[in-house]
Design brief:
The protein has nine helices and no strands. The chain is mainly α. It has one domain (about 1-10, about 35-245). The chain is elongated and about 70 Å long. The two termini are about 40 Å apart.
Length: about 250
């Protein structure tokens, strides 16, 4: 579906670029911009809990210099991408599956085909592309708010110098973290919106099928995203163990 939708978008001469950009911007606005308040609350809570717990336990063990590594491993590599994906699934995955399903049930897609407009280029392509952009931006925003918001919340419990905190983070970040961030969040966006569009298009004729395909879209998206994140994490850490000569 990814290949077909992108191919249709570039080859479809009946649809103007303005129409595609309109659907694309609407998708980014709904998926990205309108999700920022919820992402902000989750990021503040997650970042605050992680930094407070990390400082408390690392201080007892005498390893406060490992705080940056803990934040990068837990927040940037694992929790940030997964929580962002779950929020997008709950908000946008359900909305896309319902919207496309209703369009299918109300014969709007057949109307587009009768006008010579490819549904893959007008419906699927802008939603997939907008979803990928939104997930990447939301994940980056989540990490930034969690790191700096968590630091501010932690100041009520631990007096951590900002120079110490920032230096720990900069030492912990590496090129592989950027690659993992792009890989996990980029493919999470692809998985969520491909599954949602596919489930919506699977509606036959009855509007009663729409809630069923929406539920299937949510369940399948959660399973696929979780499994994908798990596989990437396993590959990364097996590779690190091989470099260390453990396996």
């Amino acid at each position: 579906m990814i290949y077909l939708s992108f191919r249709a978008a570039f080859l479809d001469q009946t649809q103007s670029l303005r129409q595609t950009l309109s659907v694309l911007s609407t998708q980014i606005y709904f998926t990205g911009w309108q999700a920022m308040p919820l992402i902000s609350i989750l990021a503040l809570g997650t970042g605050g809990i992680l930094v407070i717990q990390g400082m408390t336990n690392l201080t007892l063990l005498g390893g406060t210099e490992m705080l940056g590594n803990l934040i990068v491993v837990v927040l940037v590599r694992e929790v940030g991408p997964l929580l962002t994906a779950l929020v997008v699934i709950a908000r946008s995955g359900t909305a896309v599956a319902t919207e496309v399903g209703n369009m299918r049930a109300n014969r709007e897609i057949e109307a587009l085909e009768s006008m010579g407009i490819n549904p893959l280029s007008y419906i699927v392509f802008p939603r997939i592309l907008g979803g990928i952009v939104s997930v990447l931006c939301l994940a980056f925003y989540f990490i930034v708010i969690a790191i700096f918001g968590g630091y501010l919340i932690t100041q009520f419990f631990h007096d951590i110098p900002f120079s110490f905190y920032s230096e720990n983070l900069l030492r912990a970040f590496g090129k592989e973290d950027v690659a993992i961030f792009l890989l996990k969040n980029g493919f999470s966006g692809v998985i969520i919106f491909v599954v949602s569009c596919f489930q919506g298009l699977s509606v036959q004729k009855s509007p009663h099928e729409v809630p069923q395909v929406t539920t299937q879209a949510v369940v399948k998206s959660i399973i696929y995203v979780t499994v994908f994140n798990l596989v990437v994490t396993a590959i990364v850490y097996l590779n690190q163990l091989q470099k260390l000569g453990v396996v």
